[in-house]
Structure formats: structure tokens, C-alpha cells
Design a protein that fits this description.
Strand content: 15-25%
Distance between the termini: 48 Å
Number of helices: 15
Number of strands: 9
CATH class of the largest domain: Alpha Beta
Length: 426
């Protein structure tokens, strides 16, 4: 149960109990008689259900007004809501009197005033203001559940000035914009792109991500912030897999709606030190992430085009999620000429999702990569051709290695045969 809901129940229950005590003591009976007399109603109209109805209505309003006072962040709006409720209570009482019925507005109005005062007082506390801070910083970038957890967890920092954290990021982008723009009318192109962005952003947020970008290029979400998560790499991999499956279904529907045109999407997942904070200026600003690891994730996303893969993950991501995901090695990358090589992996799925046949093909593929890196090209080619024969459909990474090895064998692998690719060549 969220902190706001707990305080709503506490305030509403307390006010309802106080109303019951006041009603039992008949504290407001003289005021009721005076107003009823002003409306021209006899004293008998105040008896029976007419005497208990205001108590029931007041109790319900106590909970509703407490929630409104806590949930609405602007104090002028809170005052408008509470004032309007009181006006409507007295107006309703006058209208009831026109038909010879009595409804006391005093007890419900007191409930509104007390619940409003208590809720407004709570909202001025540090705990009450945290919900407003979460909404201002993150808005719809995180799920409702994550927002509630972040509001209730006082340990989670809300510093928007900038923090260095080890996080994971998922980048999903479309790479056939020129073709789509040329083949589709502007309206259809915009509709397809918005459908893609809506699905990608909702999928990443639903799987625990914080959406940091959603624009014409694609969607990007970080995992591990603002709500801390130790297994952010695993969560990012799972989110990438889920998104890939949903986008495959999306493309089937898009082809039917847009004359066979589909989005050529790719996904990159990377982990490492990133700076999170509130970026931007007066005209456009929001919570985001920056750093070399963010750029590397975008390069990984684009590298899928080279290898024919769908989802690539970095070495640090695999190191942190090892055992929780199944992968295949793709290639060794170097971010700069003077840096060590880093393995890049194709994300296949979760261990329980990989069947025996697929696992055997994966292991055979892995042997082919080892032979390739040892420059045993003929043996590597033979293995990759076996993997191709065992594959139920076109396998992009296998085709990449088959064509690359044939090209090397045709042109002759030189002594300085390079098995790593420089990042800036992607």
C-alpha cells in the first residue's frame, strides 16, 4: 500500500470518527434547525433518515477530499475543489428543501474542511512533497508502479543535478526511414512511426525502464535508475527480448495496414557508468542519461545492420547478466585504437526458452567463431555451413560469417588478419 493511500485512509478514518462523535453529541443540531427553519421546513423534517444521511455523506467525502488534497499538487486547485464541494453541499440542501426534504450541509462541509486541512498539511511535509517531485522529474517516463515505489522509498535519491551510476540502457531505433518516407504518404509514415514509438516506449516502461528519449529515431530507456535495481542488466536484457517479440508482431500488423511496409528496427543493450540528471533548457528539458556508454549502446544498435542480428548486448551487460540469458558471440570491438577488445553478443533469449536443437546450433556456431578467430578459415566455413543447414530460417549472423570467410579465402587472409572491428567503423 502506497504512503499516500495510507495517509488518505488515516485522515479519512479520523475525520469520519470525529463526525460520528459530533453527530452523537448533536453539536450541530441548533444550526440544522435554524437553516431548516429558514428554508420553511418543519422540525419533523430533521428526524429519521434525514438526520443520518449527512453523516454517511460526510464520511465518504472525508476520504475523497483527503485523497484529493494529497494527490493534487497545486494548492489553488485543492482550494477550488474543496470550496466547490462546500458550495454544492449548501446548494443541494436548498434544492432538497424546495421539494420538502431536508439535508444538512453542515456535517459534510465540516468533513470537507477537516480532510482538506489535514491533506494539505501532509502535502507540505517532505514525504508529501516527494510525490510532486517524482511527477515533476519523471512524469510519464516511468510506470505508475515505479512512481509509487519511488515516492514511498525515501532512500531513492531525487537529485536532478547529476549523478554517476552504473546502469543499463536499451536503445531501439528504426533504420529504414528513407525508404518508408519515399514509399508511404506523409500521413501513413507518421502513423506507422507513432505506432512504433508508442509500442516501444510502453513496452520498455512496462518492463521497468525509465524512458529517457522517444523521438523520430526511436526509443531509449535506462534500467537501474531512478529506482535502484541491482539486476538492471538482466532487466534490460529481458526488456530487449520482450520488445523484439512485440515488434515482430507489430511488423506483421503494419505490413497489412501500410501496403507491406514494415519498420526495420534494431536493439542495442549496454551497461556501464552513465551520468543521469535533468538535461535541457527553459524550452525543452527532462530527465535523461549521458556518457560514452550511452553512445556505445547506439553503436551496438546500428551494428545489428552489419551482422544481420536483432538484439546486441555489450560485454559488461553479459558479464552482469551471465546465466540469466542465452547469447552467441558476434565480434570483438575496440572503442579506440589503443583499447583492449570487447566481446559483443547476440541476445537469443532466456535459458528456459532455448530448446535442445537451438542450443546445439548455438554451441556449433560458437565453435565456428573460435575457428574463425584462430584463422582456421576452412574449418570455420564448414561449421557455419552446417549451422546454416540446421537453421529453420535465414540466420543473419551465420550469413555474415559465411560471406566474410569466403571473401577472406578468395582474397587471401594476410598476416595482419584482424578479427576485431574498430567502433568508429560501425
Amino acid at each position: 500500500m502506497s504512503r499516500a493511500l495510507r495517509f488518505t485512509l488515516l485522515i479519512g478514518g479520523g475525520v469520519a470518527f470525529l463526525l460520528a462523535m459530533l453527530h452523537a453529541a448533536r453539536v450541530l443540531e441548533s444550526a440544522d434547525r435554524a437553516l431548516a427553519g429558514a428554508f420553511g421546513l418543519p422540525a419533523e423534517a430533521l428526524a429519521g433518515s434525514a438526520a443520518t444521511a449527512p453523516l454517511v455523506v460526510g464520511a465518504l467525502l472525508a476520504f475523497g477530499m483527503a485523497w484529493a488534497a494529497i494527490d493534487i499538487h497545486r494548492f489553488d486547485l485543492k482550494a477550488v475543489v474543496s470550496g466547490s464541494a462546500v458550495v454544492q453541499l449548501f446548494t443541494g440542501s436548498a434544492l432538497a428543501a424546495l421539494f420538502g426534504a431536508w439535508f444538512s450541509p453542515f456535517l459534510p462541509s465540516l468533513a470537507v474542511a477537516l480532510a482538506y486541512a489535514a491533506g494539505a498539511l501532509y502535502s507540505r511535509t517532505e514525504a508529501g512533497q516527494r510525490a510532486r517531485q517524482v511527477e515533476e522529474l519523471y512524469g510519464r517516463r516511468i510506470s505508475d508502479g515505479a512512481a509509487a515505489a519511488l515516492t514511498d522509498d525515501a532512500r531513492a535519491p531525487l537529485d536532478a543535478q547529476g549523478r554517476v551510476q552504473e546502469l543499463s540502457i536499451v536503445v531501439c531505433e528504426i533504420f529504414n526511414h528513407p525508404e518508408l518516407m519515399q514509399e508511404l504518404p506523409p500521413g501513413e509514415y507518421t502513423a506507422l512511426l507513432n505506432e512504433f514509438l508508442e509500442l516501444a516506449s510502453e513496452s520498455l516502461v512496462a518492463d521497468g525502464g525509465c524512458l529517457v528519449e522517444c523521438d523520430g529515431e526511436g526509443a531509449r530507456a535506462i534500467f537501474g535508475a531512478p529506482l535502484p535495481a541491482e539486476e538492471h542488466a538482466r532487466a534490460a536484457c529481458l526488456a530487449g527480448l520482450n520488445l523484439a517479440r512485440r515488434l515482430n508482431v507489430f511488423n506483421e500488423k503494419a505490413a497489412a495496414r501500410h501496403s507491406g511496409r514494415m519498420a526495420d528496427w534494431r536493439i542495442g543493450v549496454n551497461s556501464g557508468l552513465m551520468i543521469t540528471g535533468h538535461f535541457g533548457g527553459e524550452r525543452l528539458a527532462g530527465f535523461g542519461a549521458a556518457g560514452e556508454e550511452v553512445e556505445f549502446a547506439r553503436r551496438l544498435c546500428a551494428a545489428n545492420l552489419i551482422y544481420g542480428s536483432g538484439v546486441l548486448i555489450g560485454a559488461r551487460t553479459y558479464e552482469m547478466a551471465e546465466g540469466a540469458v542465452e547469447v552467441r558471440p558476434m565480434e570483438l570491438l575496440r572503442r579506440r585504437q589503443d583499447e583492449n577488445w570487447q566481446e559483443v553478443y547476440e541476445l537469443l533469449g532466456l535459458p528456459e526458452e532455448i530448446g535442445v536443437d537451438e542450443r546445439d546450433r548455438r554451441d556449433l556456431y560458437w565453435n565456428g567463431v573460435i575457428y574463425y578467430r584462430e584463422k582456421r578459415l576452412a574449418e570455420a566455413l564448414e561449421i557455419f555451413q552446417r549451422v546454416r543447414a540446421l537453421s529453420p530460417s535465414l540466420d543473419g549472423p551465420v550469413e555474415f560469417y559465411v560471406q566474410r570467410i569466403r571473401s577472406l579465402m578468395l582474397n587471401g587472409a594476410s598476416a595482419d588478419f584482424e578479427t576485431a572491428r574498430l567502433l568508429n567503423s560501425l
